[in-house]
């Protein structure tokens, strides 16, 4: 499947891209747009998530995604349940996927858990987005994985023009 093939690529040192083995790979346009901004990369791709897993910081993208899902909830009951899950998974001390937040942001989240609003995790989400944008994203853009995806995109464009 797509995910296992990307993981395989992360481990491959071959100079010849093996991306032709991947079904449903991203289009050449999508791969090229990823270099424009983190927002373009976050827009529906699992490649960055897989990269973050290889960098041992997958919790950042998973938290960010959970917050995006949380903001879409309209039911107070659903929002309270999801807020509790996000807190247990990412915020509380020693959480399974604890993210790096300062005490002020963490305390604000705890105060809002009883009656969470769609903006309850906004400060934390902005902080994690900033960490990804300033640290993980540049490493991804300079990674062998992204270089291989770009090379495959160039080959695809070249092949399609022939």
TrEMBL record:
<feature type="domain" description="RGS">
    <location>
        <begin position="44"/>
        <end position="150"/>
    </location>
</feature>
<protein>
    <submittedName>
        <fullName>Regulator of G protein signaling 2</fullName>
    </submittedName>
</protein>
<dbReference type="Pfam" id="PF00615">
    <property type="entry name" value="RGS"/>
</dbReference>
<feature type="domain" description="PH">
    <location>
        <begin position="1"/>
        <end position="43"/>
    </location>
</feature>
<dbReference type="InterPro" id="IPR001849">
    <property type="entry name" value="PH_domain"/>
</dbReference>
<dbReference type="InterPro" id="IPR016137">
    <property type="entry name" value="RGS"/>
</dbReference>
<dbReference type="InterPro" id="IPR036305">
    <property type="entry name" value="RGS_sf"/>
</dbReference>
<dbReference type="InterPro" id="IPR044926">
    <property type="entry name" value="RGS_subdomain_2"/>
</dbReference>
């Amino acid at each position: 499947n797509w995910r296992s093939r990307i993981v395989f690529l992360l481990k491959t040192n071959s100079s010849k891209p093996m991306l032709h083995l991947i079904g449903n790979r991203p289009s050449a346009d999508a791969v090229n747009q990823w270099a424009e901004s983190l927002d373009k990369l976050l827009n529906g791709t699992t490649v960055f998530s897989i990269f973050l897993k290889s960098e041992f910081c997958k919790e950042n993208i998973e938290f960010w995604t959970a917050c995006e899902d949380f903001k879409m909830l309209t039911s107070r009951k659903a929002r309270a349940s999801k807020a509790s899950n996000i807190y247990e998974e990412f915020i509380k001390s020693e959480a399974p996927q604890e993210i790096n937040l300062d005490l002020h942001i963490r305390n604000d989240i705890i105060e809002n858990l009883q009656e969470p609003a769609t903006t309850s995790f906004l400060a934390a989400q902005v902080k994690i987005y900033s960490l990804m944008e300033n640290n993980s994203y540049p490493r991804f853009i300079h990674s062998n994985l992204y270089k291989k995806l770009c090379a495959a995109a160039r080959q695809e464009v070249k092949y399609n023009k022939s």
